[in-house]
Amino acid sequence: WPAFSDDIDAILALKAKRNAVILAHNYQTPEILHCVADIVGDSLALARKAMTVEAQVIVLAGVHFMAETAKLLNPDKTVLIPDLEAGCSLADSITPEDVRLMRHRYPSVPVVSYVNTSAAVKAESDICCTSGNALAVVRSLGAPRVIMLPDEYLARNIAAQTKVEIIAWKGGCEVHERFAASDIQELREAYPGVTVLAHPECPPEVVAEADFAGSTAAMSDYVGQHKPARVVLMTECSMSDNIAVEHPEIEFVRPCNLCPHMKRITLANIRSALEETRHVVTIDPHVAERARWAVERMLFV
Ligand code: 13P
Ligand code: SF4
User: Fold this and answer.
1) Residues 36 and 110 reside in one and the same domain
2) Is 115 within any annotated ligand binding site?
3) Residue 191 assigned as binding residue
């Protein structure tokens, strides 16, 4: 990536000077993922690996809830997010008050919150989950009914795999809700033999039409293990870009959808984050204590 060499060299030098590491989500662009990131993964891997970081500064190349999760797990470290506006439509779809109302409506039903929520929503929850462990988390509770929020489609996709009754919230991912089952039927006609992988934030009809559904890390592993000749990933565009770097022999069929929040993170603002120590992620200590418990509980499932 010669076009980015100035920023890349500066970031590598700043990381050493500041004793910093960069945690990057799979939806970050290839030059971030492949040139400056120290730890790369899906939301679950980033949360797990955040617990093992020894550096004093963590730059989260991802969206705000991921930076909050890293801060929850590293209260004594400085966690930076390069753009404070890097949000998430799911995290924006529910408030702590909404969770309290759900609890009032369904007394003694445990609340499972997707990590794509604010720390304040996590603080009202019994346990968190990610797309990588949602089914295991639901099963671990041993309850006949579970509230699963805020992603309605993830909740319905999990409900299809368990006898546990799932009570969903009406949130949606603005990237994945736009895929339709008819897209897959058209792709299969246009690209014979194409393998279709879908993220579980897609509508259930899309997941039913796909050959495999899983977290961003699970989709990446699937491609590495099965090495399909041509594949389409019903998810954010950078996934294909990033996996294609490692598998030039595979034909990656697009369409894909961009996440405008993930795309707010750039090499330029990662560099500024390290130069100017911004934007520092802070969480109210009373909220943090309860939210951390919900996140840590998930990590032991
Ligand atoms: P993963 O946990 O599968 O990486 O998903 C995070 C996300 O935001 C998907 O839209
Ligand atoms: Fe949120 Fe969807 Fe973007 Fe993931 S892809 S960060 S769920 S808006």
Assistant:
1) no
2) yes
3) no
Q: How far apart are CA 300 and CA 141, in angstroms?
A: 12
Domain check: are 150 and 293 in the same one? yes
The gap from C-alpha 241 to its chain's centroid, in whole angstroms, comes to: 17
* Contact 69 CB / ligand 1 (< 6 Å): no
The tally of domains found in the chain comes to 3
Both 193 and 209 in a single domain?
yes
Sign of CA dihedral 65, 43, 237, 181: negative
Is 261 marked within a binding site?
no
Which residue is closest in CA terms to ligand 2's atom 3? 259
* Residue 18 and residue 74 in one domain: yes
Full domain range(s) for residue 79: 2-87+263-283
Say whether both 164 and 291 belong to one domain.
yes
CB 295 within 8 A of CB 72: yes
C-beta of residue 125 within 8 angstroms of C-beta of residue 146? no
pTM equals: 0.97
Distance in Å, CA 90 to ligand 2 centroid: 7
d(CA 241, ligand 2 centre) in Å: 17
The answer to whether the CB of 220 is under 6 A from ligand 1 is: no
- Do 207 and 223 fall into the same domain? yes
**Looking at residue 275, which CATH number applies to its domain?**
3.40.50.10800
pLDDT digits 0-9 by tens, 79-135: 999 999 999 999 999 999 999 999 999 999 999 999 999 999 999 999 999 999 999
Q: Which of 33, 42, 117 to mutate to test the pocket of ligand 1 (most atoms within 8 A of CB)?
A: 42
Tell me, in angstroms, the distance from the centre of ligand 1 to residue 116's CA: 8
Which residues, in sequence order, are CB contacts of 35 under 8 Å at separation 6+?
1, 4, 8, 267
- The answer on 198 and 251 residing in a single domain is yes
Whether complex ipTM tops 0.90: yes
